[in-house]
Design goal:
Blueprint (H helix, E strand, L loop, with lengths): L1 H16 L23 E7 L2 E8 L3 E6 L10 H7 L3 E6 L16 H14 L5 E6 L1 H12 L4 E7 L16 H17 L6 H14 L5 H4 L6 E6 L7 H10 L4 E5 L6 H4 L1 H12 L3
Parallel strand pairs: 3-4, 3-5, 5-6, 6-7, 7-8
Antiparallel strand pairs: 1-2, 2-4
Helix pairs in contact: 1-5, 2-10, 3-4
Organism: Mesorhizobium helmanticense
GO molecular function: serine hydrolase activity
Protein name: Alpha/beta hydrolase
């Protein structure tokens, strides 16, 4: 996986140097996140042997935002600014990501889901809506499968439920490559172990090689009201896989975000936030 990430970076830098990064469609861009608003509460929660960074904004019915692999909570800045006007918004850095620490324990979606459930316990939040992007969406599906009593609604964007849902073309996609480069810089800036990015990537890559692996029968038992969401130009997840997920999760709503990719929350922040609100606040 590390070799692939370095290949991503090489392809990205080559294309930028060749002048292919200008005047592109929105779905080909990777905007910088907005500045994160000032939280009402932030800190580190002791969960499952790690210190998990979190921040809380606003008041109202809670909504938990979970970022994707190699990312961090600040990616959600635009959504936090909008959603916190009417909701209590919780963000966090997943184990090993951003400001959160990690252990030698193997990464797994069950473990990461238990981290977020422990964070909700720490914050005394019994039940929440959950918005998850990529790995965050997979974590949300894990919680819906095993702890549906903790969720009111699930908005899962750019998630997959089996490893064959991944598009092999992502390996040479320049937008995804730019994200890998940015993630390495963000890790060096935010992490307590800034020199361990390769070790962290190697550790989480073991999870990506085999997980998730849920069956149609398992997904058919989900009872949480669920939206399966994708940008219409997602680089990483096959559209047929998104369609499959929406078809096998009972009552799932499929939402396709126009002119957006895997990074829709950065490319179309206002549209993304409104889509979330329309779903989590629906009666």
């Amino acid at each position: 996986m590390i070799r692939c990430l370095k290949a991503f970076a090489f392809v990205t830098l080559f294309l930028i140097a060749a002048g292919h990064a200008s005047a592109e469609e929105r779905w080909l861009t990777l905007p910088e996140p907005a500045a994160m608003p000032k939280p009402e509460q932030s800190g580190y929660a002791p969960v499952n042997g790690i210190e998990m960074y979190y921040a809380v904004f606003g008041a109202g019915d809670p909504v938990l935002l979970i970022h994707g692999g190699l990312g961090h909570a600040d990616i959600w800045a635009s959504q936090v600014a909008t959603l916190s006007k009417t909701h209590k918004v919780i963000v966090a850095d997943s184990r090993g990501h951003g400001r959160s620490t990690r252990t030698d324990q193997p990464f797994g979606y069950d473990l990461m889901a238990s981290d977020y459930l422990a964070l909700l316990d720490y914050l005394k939040i019994d039940k929440t809506a959950l918005v998850g992007w990529s790995d965050g969406g997979i974590i949300g599906i894990d919680i819906a499968l095993h702890h549906p009593e903790r969720l009111t609604r699930l908005y899962a964007q750019a998630a997959n439920v089996t490893t064959d849902g991944l598009d092999a073309g992502v390996m040479t996609n320049k937008t995804f490559g730019a994200y890998i480069v940015r993630s390495g810089k963000d890790y060096a800036r935010l992490s307590r172990t800034p020199g361990e990015y390769d070790a962290f990537v190697a550790q989480i890559s073991h999870m990506w090689e085999t997980q998730p692996a849920w069956t149609r029968e398992q997904l058919g038992k989900i009872t949480t009201p669920t939206a399966i969401v994708a940008g219409d130009h997602d680089e990483a997840i096959k559209r047929t896989h998104t369609d499959y997920m929406a078809s096998v999760i009972p009552g799932a709503k499929e939402i396709i975000l126009p002119n957006a990719s895997h990074f829709a929350m950065l490319q179309a922040p206002d549209e993304y936030s409104q889509s979330v609100l329309d779903f989590i606040d629906a009666k």
